[in-house]
Specification:
The complex is a heterodimer.
Chain A: H1 3-10, E1 15-21, H2 30-40, E2 44-48, H3 59-70, H4 75-82, E3 94-97, H5 100-106, H6 108-118, E4 122-124, H7 130-143, E5 147-148, E6 151-152, H8 158-167, E7 172-175, H9 189-199, E8 207-210, H10 216-225, E9 228-231, H11 233-241, H12 245-257
Parallel strand pairs in A: 1-2, 1-9, 2-3, 3-4, 4-5, 6-7, 7-8
Helix pairs in contact in A: 2-12
Chain B: E1 17-18, E2 21-22, H1 31-46, H2 48-62, E3 68-70, H3 72-78, E4 81-86, H4 96-109, E5 114-119, H5 123-135, E6 138-144, H6 145-150, H7 152-160, E7 164-168, H8 175-188, E8 193-196, H9 206-214, H10 216-229, E9 236-240, H11 245-251, E10 261-269, H12 280-283, E11 285-289, E12 292-296, H13 321-329, E13 332-338, H14 339-353, H15 359-366, E14 378-383, H16 394-405
Parallel strand pairs in B: 4-14, 5-6, 5-8, 6-7, 9-10, 9-14, 10-13
Antiparallel strand pairs in B: 1-2, 3-4, 11-12
Helix pairs in contact in B: 2-4, 4-5, 4-9, 5-7, 9-11, 10-11, 14-15
Classes of the chains: A alpha/beta, B alpha/beta.
């Protein structure tokens, strides 16, 4: 069983997935941030592979991508940095998130092979179309034990959500609103109606809610309707402003997970 | 040129691909919008009411058909017969308006209340602001911060037409970043907004839809050539390619006429190998850009490279997927012209035909001596922009002034 599946089997609620951009704020910070996140109580992590043209991302993540590229981060370097992470005690599920062009240029099969070698569990490639995944990549992902995570949004039709649920494994990334990442809207009543609608569909996959999750209040709200939530831009802002990652990361994660019912089936 | 395989289709297939290029590589947030367009564009465009309104506006508002002009002295100079398709005489000064008229009518039928667009040089932004004013629809145009400085006259025109011009301040602050911002705007406003893409790029069905709206160019060329020469097919069709909307329109009705040689001309900038170029097929590799699989200029790591050309209408790091397919199959020949060659060609045309071409068009004119056209051949060059509206970068103006002074 994949680490992502194991996590949801043993801990079906209150999971915190934290996104950070590889090579940001410093090119060599990737592994340190990963370790500190694990020690601080993150349940899974999503490492962003920086891209020059991230169309689904708002300003905060765009700027972190730009900075990481200026720092010299590449797909190749990230995979090198992740070598040995499992031997060094990283036990939480690790996903790589990014736009598809750099992965295509690295070579899909070679990329998946390296991911499996270093211990990556899943991939989120938001601009990979479902038909391309099913026809060209699915067999390769499966050969290397990588779970592919699809997104759904408030505009996704019920029929398509069912289809995504059928071809997904791991979890479904539930985008909270019609927006790019980093929207400041929080969690509105409209969103709650949408979360309830999805929750009532009894999908086979767990769901994590992302976009607009930034603190304890929004995290707790999201956890009421799903198996957990994803924080991205708010964490990037912490990294951006941090003078000491070793204290600022745990402070932030603890503040988000305060009152958390992790492990308790609510 | 490669030998053509038999029975290659140059039309988009039912999955949105031209050979291996095309598709809809968009995040889920854009999927419903793109899907709505995909399932409805052909029916809407085939509707007789739509056709009547579209053709009526092209005739009475845009001023079509545009002339096909036999350039006698230019023909003498090159020892062949050269016609210029005068798209610069369209309302707003470029072929871009053919597409924006079509898309605004389509947006109305989709019940959209607002238009968003990207623009590089400002030509597509002006054409979009124009049709939005015509129809009384709100219009937001994203433009790279650098381009806003370089193309001030077009920014003023868009504002005069009532559009809101928003700067793209991330990345390289040019056309590709304006395109990213327009896509983000569409993600944030999926229900009430239509995105009018200005070229044959983007996710399916945009490349096909824009090509169909621009295909009026070659439809007219066929009729006009028949009238003037007795044969609706020329030997060569030459057009410049940035994203490639004018070339797609000029080639469209000749794609399945193998006797017609199609020549696409890219901007080599300071030279293909100078590090300052926009010659995508010479420098690029297959990959994904702005929602479609195509050929794009990129680093080894797959990061999009900022292209360079003196002409602001050609400095795009990719080409439309239809052109990637025409390149790969050998159906079209891809050549390139440098900044200097294009400038020289623009002066030549001005002096012998009394027509000042835009820098974009000048790239197509610059290679006329390289295509192998003989005295019995007929060449049609797409003449696309009015010069006063484009190519008004300060560097160009300085170059012109220095030439005139000498």
């Amino acid at each position: 069983m994949n680490r992502i599946e194991k996590l949801f089997a043993s801990q079906p609620s209150g999971n915190l997935n934290v996104y950070f951009t590889a090579g940001f704020p410093g090119v060599g910070d990737t592994r340190r941030i990963l370790s500190v996140l694990q020690e601080s109580g993150a349940d899974l992590v999503e490492i962003g592979m920086p891209y020059s043209d991230p169309v689904a991302d708002g300003e905060t993540i765009q700027l972190s991508n730009q900075q990481a590229l200026e720092n010299g981060m590449t797909v190749r370097l990230l995979l090198e940095q992740l070598e040995g992470m499992r031997e060094d005690g990283i036990t939480l599920p690790v996903l790589l998130m990014g736009y598809i062009n750099p992965v295509i240029q690295f070579g899909i099969e070679r990329f998946c092979e390296k991911c499996a070698e270093v211990g990556v569990d899943g991939l989120i490639l938001p601009d990979m179309p479902m038909d391309v995944y099913l026809n060209e990549y699915k067999a390769i992902f499966e050969k290397y034990g990588l779970l592919n995570i699809f997104l759904v949004t408030p505009q996704t039709s019920e029929a398509r959500i069912r289809q995504i649920d059928q071809v997904s494994s791991g979890f479904i990334y539930t985008v909270s609103s019609a927006s790019v990442t980093g929207s400041q809207s929080g969690v509105s009543d409209n969103m709650e109606a949408y979360f309830e609608r999805i929750d009532a569909m009894n999908l086979r996959n767990p769901r994590l809610i992302g976009f607009g999750i930034k603190d304890n209040v929004t995290f707790e709200k999201a956890c009421r309707y799903a198996q957990g939530a994803i924080i991205g831009s708010a964490f990037i802002r912490v990294l951006q402003e941090s003078q000491d990652l070793g204290t600022d990361i745990p402070d932030f994660i603890h503040s988000v997970k305060a009152n958390n019912h992790a492990g308790i089936d609510v | 040129m490669e030998v053509l395989e038999e029975n290659i289709s140059f039309q988009v297939d039912e999955n949105g691909y031209y050979g291996q290029f095309g598709g809809a590589f968009v995040p889920e947030m854009l999927h419903p919008n793109v899907e709505e367009l995909r399932t409805r564009y052909l029916d809407i465009m085939a509707d007789p009411g739509f056709q009547a309104e579209f053709n009526g506006l092209l005739r009475h508002y845009v001023g079509r058909p545009t002339p096909l002009y036999l350039a006698k002295r230019l023909s003498e100079k090159f020892g062949t017969t050269i016609y210029l398709k005068r798209e610069d005489l369209c309302h707003t000064g470029a072929h871009k308006v053919n597409n924006t008229i079509g898309q605004i009518l389509l947006a109305q039928r989709l019940g959209k209340k607002r238009i968003v667009a990207e623009t590089g040089a400002g030509q597509h932004g002006v054409a979009t602001a124009t049709v939005c004013a015509l129809m009384g629809v709100e219009c937001i145009v994203y433009m790279g911060e650098l381009d806003i400085e370089r193309q001030a006259p077009n920014v003023a025109r868009m504002k005069m037409l009532g559009a809101e011009v928003r700067p793209a301040t991330c990345g390289s602050k040019t056309l590709k970043d304006a395109t990213n911002e327009a896509m983000r705007h569409w993600i944030n406003n999926p229900a009430d907004t239509h995105y009018i893409i200005g070229s044959v790029v983007g996710p399916h069905p945009y490349p096909d839809m824009v090509t169909r709206f621009q295909s009026v160019i070659s439809a007219e060329m066929k009729t006009q050539l028949k009238e003037q020469t007795g044969n609706s097919n020329p030997d060569f069709v030459v057009a410049c390619v940035g994203g490639g909307s004018n070339a797609a329109g000029a080639f469209y009705h000749y794609l399945d006429e193998p006797s017609v040689q199609l020549i696409a001309v890219e901007a080599a900038g300071q030279g293909v190998d100078s590090g300052h170029s926009a010659a995508t097929t010479a420098l690029g590799k297959p990959g994904v850009l702005h929602g479609s699989r195509t050929i794009l200029m990129q680093t080894e790591d797959g990061q999009v490279v900022e292209p360079y050309s003196l002409s602001a209408g050609l400095d795009y790091p990719g080409i439309g997927p239809v052109h990637a397919h025409l390149f790969q199959t050998g159906r079209a020949r891809f050549l390139s012209a440098t900044d200097d060659e294009a400038l020289k060609a623009s002066f030549e045309l001005a002096r012998i035909e009394g027509i000042i071409p835009a820098l974009e068009t000048s790239h197509a004119l610059a290679i006329l001596d390289r295509i192998g056209a003989g005295k019995d051949d007929v060449v049609v060059a797409g003449y696309l922009y009015e010069v006063s509206l484009i190519g008004c970068q300060l560097s160009v103006i300085r170059f012109f002034n220095s030439l005139i002074q000498n």
